[in-house]
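Entry:
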Amino acid sequence: MPRAPLAPLAPLKTTCPPRSRPPSRPSPRYLLSLLLKAQEDHRRVLEETKSYMHKDYRDRLTYNNNQLEKKYNELHSNYQQVVDASTSLYQQNEDLHQKLNVVTSKLQQREADYAKIESNFLEYMKIIRPTDDDLSTIRDRFKTLKYTINRLLLSLNKKADRNAATELLSASWDNLQDSVRSLGVPLDHFYINMLMEKLIMDTLVKYVFNVTLYVGLPVNKAYAEVKRWMDERNPQWSLRLRQQLCSLVANPKDIETQEAIQVEKSRIVELIYCHLVTSYPFIREKDKADAASTASGREKGYYAKVEEIVDKAVYLSLAIRGQDVEIMTIHVREGDESFDPERMTLEQKSKASGVVKFCICPPFQGGDGEHGFLEKGKVFCG
């Protein structure tokens, strides 16, 4: 379908606002006044700001100075306290050093005095004691004596006449005949050596260690009575008497006393040697052969070993008698007393406990808890 023709455009109407009058320009004087005023305001603000900043800085500076001064005063006070304490400590140290010098001088003087007293005491003990032994050396001498006996018997091991030894050992103790034979007839070599050690020690105990004063002295019996009398009245005097008498015994210039001692020692040697010869018959022939081969012709070998044992026992008894404590043998009731590990040691092949069947070597004990002495005995429990 054909379009309709367009209508003609209406003419445009324009309306313009009325023109206003341009503003009037400020005068230069007015502008200058405004500028001056602005400068004055700016200067005033700067001055106020400067003044405020200066005041705040002064306040902060004053505060910091005050704090620093306060801290300085505290540190100075602490420093002064340290100086005062150091001065006081130095003075105390000087005083203590002087006191130390005085005490050291006194100590050195006392040590010198004690050394002199000890020297005098030792000299005195040498005068009243027959030997230089003390309890420790006596204990060592006991061990040496036991070792010497044991070494002798070890050299005779399995060389005994079992029948002769059994007869001898069975007859040596009246109260132990059944106990000895209960070990076997004839006795085994081990038991022969064990009982022979017991026989030797019993002989030494009876004729050496249990003698009132010393072997071979004619005054032993009289001394026993005097000792008993003095012990009841003044034990210290009794002790000093025993030590001084032992010192007289040890004097080698007393020929008469030394001869009496030697006679008794020879008797003990012969007694022990006869026991050995009975149980070990080859000994006498061997010693005679050894003596024949020497220029002096004196018996050597086992006889000399027995002499060595007796000499050690006799010397040990003298050392014991010279001590400040009285050392005695402790009797052990064989067949009745129980094994006491505090005072006894066990022989080989012995039961670990039970009743003591044989006392091979008795305990030796003396003194008290402070100056005590104990040499343990050796027993066989079966």
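The beta strands are 327-329, 344-346, 356-361, 364-366, 373-375, 377-381.
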